[in-house]
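I need you to check the entry underneath: sequence plus fold tokens. Let me know what the token row says about the fold.

>
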Amino acid sequence: RQHEAPRRVKRAWVIPPISVSENHKRIPHLLVQIKSDKQQPGGVIYSIKGPGVDEEPLGIFSIDKFSGKVFLNAMLDREENDRYRLRAFALDLGGVTLEDPTDLEIIVVDQNDNRPLFRQDVFTGRVVEGAEPGTCVMTVDATDADDPDTDNAALRYSILEQGAAGMFSINATTGEICTARPGLDRETVGVYNLTVQAADMSGDGLTTTAVAVIYLEDINDNPPEFTKEEFSMEVEEQAAGVDVGKVFVHDKDLAGSPSWLAKFTILEGDPEGAFAIRTDPHTNDGVLSVVKPLDHEVRDRFELTVSVQNERPLEPSAPGSPRALATVRVRVRDVNEAPVFRENPRRISVLEGTPPGTAITTYTASDPDTHQIQTLSYALLYDPADWLQLDPHAGTVRTKRELLHPSAFLQGGWYIALLLARDDAEPPLSATGTLSIEILEVNDHAPQLQPPAGVLCGRPGRGGTLLLGATDDDRPPHGAPFHFQLSPQHPQLARNWSLARFNVTHAVLAVLAELPEGPYSLPLLLRDSGTPPREQQQLLNVSVCHCGRDGTCLDGALAAATAGAGITLGALMIILGSIILLLVLAALGAARVRGRRRALRKGLLQRSRDDMRDNILNYDEQGGGEEDQDAYDINQLRHPELFSPRAKPPLRRDAPLSSGTPMAPRKLPSSPSDIEDFINEGLEAADSDPSVPPYDTALIYDYEGEGSVASPLSSIVSSLTDEDQDYDYLSEWGPRFRRLADLYG
């Protein structure tokens, strides 16, 4: 079908836009009548299509198909749909189009049927107290669903209620709320609740309201103040780290803010720093505490001057406070205090051997309670050796028995005891004092010669010297250095002997003239360095031996035996017993080693008499069947010396040239790894045995004979099938075939 050229639409068929007010209540309402110029004898059929007719929302518009009148059938809402675009059609009775479809536009005219709406019911804003007029706080805004191009949506804002002060104003067009007057004080009014209104029709139409809440933010414009000028408190003496009491303050600023927190300072009355004050973070009060123990007997009252201020500095415009200082009076209460040993520990010195009952010291304590009359008593709390006795009233310490060295209760020469001092208050208090007693050494032991005997060469200058030493049971300074000398009672000794100092504990004995061999007894005088010194004469047994060229004794054993003249019989018996004991131990060790070697020589093949490998059957010879038990005895491998002749065995004439005769008896292998060599040697011995057949002799096998008690095994499968075979005879073959008899019988 060819497209026709656009034709000029007649003016009567062009329908201008139709306006209808929303919320029209006269329904049905004639909107317009359309008419086609091409009238037919039978008439024209009119129709409309589009939203509100055959599209959602349905049924709003309708048309009389014969007259062309368009009707409104329902109330319209401009906020839902502000216009409708329809298409109008003109047809003849046969359904042929008379006119091209034309547009029919219906415009919904707005009415003021919607109130303004605030975006939220409650608006919140903040501003600092003392803000200057004109300081903007917040903006409230509202919306109107009516046509924004009409006065129906023209909004105006106002404050309906804010209290009598009128501290805020609102911009009628924008809704911005600002301060209107000075004098905002959070401590007077902390929160402002404003009722704001929005009205359309430029303020003359429909209205709505909302609430604007304005909070004033705190600044430090109020200093803290003490609730009173004087505070009184009380604390016990000797108490430290405890709270004494509180000083109370008041601050009008916001609780918990830096403008509210207080800071306290002790200005006067505490030169020694016995008190401290801190802030209670919950109540903002000052807490006074004791940091050093107080003594009622020294000072029983304190008068402190305390100041208070905020953590944050005051605003310049804030007034000063006349109550930023307070006086705190603290009374120190007297309590019972424990006795005190002023000298603790007490150190004294006592000579060892001091007789019992000797007063060595008076160790007393003092009572700090000078304002109370109390009596002290004393007792021994710790006296491990039970050396002391104590006067319970005077505190005098006396010896109970002699204090002697050495003792397990002494620590480095000191004896430690503990004393207890107790008052008679209720309840009683006590103190412990330490008494350290130094047991002074007394020179009550003479030095002892060590050793008391020796051996030296009898020639002067060639080994004729002997080093002598001494020991002393006394502690320094009553011991070394020791003094050695020949006895003054025997001046003739100086012709043959001399003593020279070697060090503080030793001296050297030397021969001055050649002396004959033999024992000598020299009386020596030993003296220590104590005060007063102790000396003792002792005998030194010296054996002079025969000298060699190098100055040593030629026969050391003889010299030792000769020197034994100075050894006691008991010492000699101890030495001989020790030597015998060592010899017995050595003999036992040697016997144990020999026993281990003998056990190894018994061979590794010997395990037990019931060894299953006792017999090795010679299966190389096909003898008389099961009854042939001629076998080799394995004992030949275990004990070859029992079966090998001691004399050299005769050589076999048929033996290979490389065959040799092993030595008899063969040595048992020392380890399992040599068993192969051991067996090879046994084979070589067997090859050399003349009693066995030659190598080139044919073996003779025994004839087993004819017939057998047992049937041949081939009879088991001689039948064609298992059903034809009778297996009952298996039970007659003995216990070895009982299992087969159970399976097939």
Summary: The two ends are 110 Å apart (CA to CA). The mean pLDDT is 79. The longest helix spans residues 569-601.
